[in-house]
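Supplementary Methods S3. Input chains for the assembly prediction are listed below.
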Amino acid sequence: MRIGELSRRTGVPVPTIKYYVREGLLPPGELSSPNQARYDETHERRLRLIRALLDVGGLKVAAIAEVLQAVEEPDRPLHKILGTAADRLGPRHGETEDEAQSEARDTVSELIARRGWRVDTDYPAAADLAHALAALDRLGHGAFAELLDDYADAAEQVARADLDYVDRRVAVEDLVETAVIGTVLGEAMFNALRRLAHVDRSARRFGAPEHEADEPEEADRAEGTDGADGSGGSDGADGSDG
Amino acid sequence: MRIGELSRRTGVPVPTIKYYVREGLLPPGELSSPNQARYDETHERRLRLIRALLDVGGLKVAAIAEVLQAVEEPDRPLHKILGTAADRLGPRHGETEDEAQSEARDTVSELIARRGWRVDTDYPAAADLAHALAALDRLGHGAFAELLDDYADAAEQVARADLDYVDRRVAVEDLVETAVIGTVLGEAMFNALRRLAHVDRSARRFGAPEHEADEPEEADRAEGTDGADGSGGSDGADGSDG
DNA sequence: GTGGATGGATAGTGGCGCTATCCGCTATCT
DNA sequence: AGATAGCGGATAGCGCCACTATCCATCCAC
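Predicted structure tokens for the full assembly:
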């Protein structure tokens, strides 16, 4: 297909596609003439991946370029690429050599050791965690770190589910791409779920009594009852809480 | 104290503090003269909160302004404010009335109903979740949604821990601020933990052999040294999935 | 009473994700 | 063959955002 159709199929404007090619996110089309290029489904797929990483995952264009370059090389060990992807997710923060900071780093090291995780202490995600803990500490909420093991339990659960999924898919699709997608979109998914669970629990605890009650005081949520019935064909995958 | 000391204590440049005041993130200092203002610990605290929300939480300045305005009003029900905070966390996405989109919305509704969560289906976090699911679907990973209940279990666990913490702190500190901090920084914390858990599990599964080996086979993050193979051997041509 | 800090206001900067425009070429329709 | 639409490639510009620089009149400390 040509660029116009690629644009139509994906909803991405043509100049934007050109921009992605320029930035190295998308491989250029195969030239059939000096100024005529062809694109195929791999481009379409890649383009959708880019948009997902961008819109849902919140990655920056430069970060996506790095991740996708890693995806291109199947030689590298998976956990490295996963790291590359995940590392680009976190916020980039300058060095703030604080007391809270070094203390937080120790806490992270202890946690990693305690759980027997096979990760380096200087892993970017570890630094992110330390940053969060340090910020908590500076805000007088160092006690929030007491929840670390609860959080880690949940994180392990999720990670297990993710890897199981990757395992299941490994033969079918590109392993690395699957892992990237799972890492990035899974994060967005979990964050949304956590926010929903927060609202639910705080409604239960502070808001309404047992019976359903919707405060009419500020019902600016409006009602969004979409008439579509269409029972989904989802199987009853019961959550096996373990 | 005056603005200079506030700056020194927090590490935030004076012009930036002025900027925050202009943007409504930080209340102005108390004027003792027409052009002389005093700041106190509440300002310092607020400033640290702003930086945490900005650097660690990744919120935008405008979003922080909204959240903090909600924090100022203790009348509003907590779960509303929590919602306000959480809603500003997610990515803003335009309307992409897709098939995947509406299908995803249904999936979300079912999930909420299935778990008995007291949240509206059109809650922003629900929309975020639907967006993530729709993106997954478009990428051919609709099956990832099978993990939803696993994810939701973990999310509930985390939310329970968070609310317990808020409960514990409620008498001591400002409730709403605590909730905001927990929501935002907790998210950063969990995401980092999840990435660490990912690396751990994928190292176990794809990297090192089963027995616990403290010594990593590749201690450095540097790429290039991928001589060690034996795992994978996935040379398969790129996704000829169609 | 002098010099440096302060408050307040306005304008400018740099990064980022696009977007607009231009040019010469090419595929396709008639 | 000629008209017309689209294309590839390159460059410049836009809009948003989080600051940052400058200016000026005032104030406080020494």
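The beta strands of chain A are 30-33, 36-38. DSSP finds nine helices and two strands in chain A.
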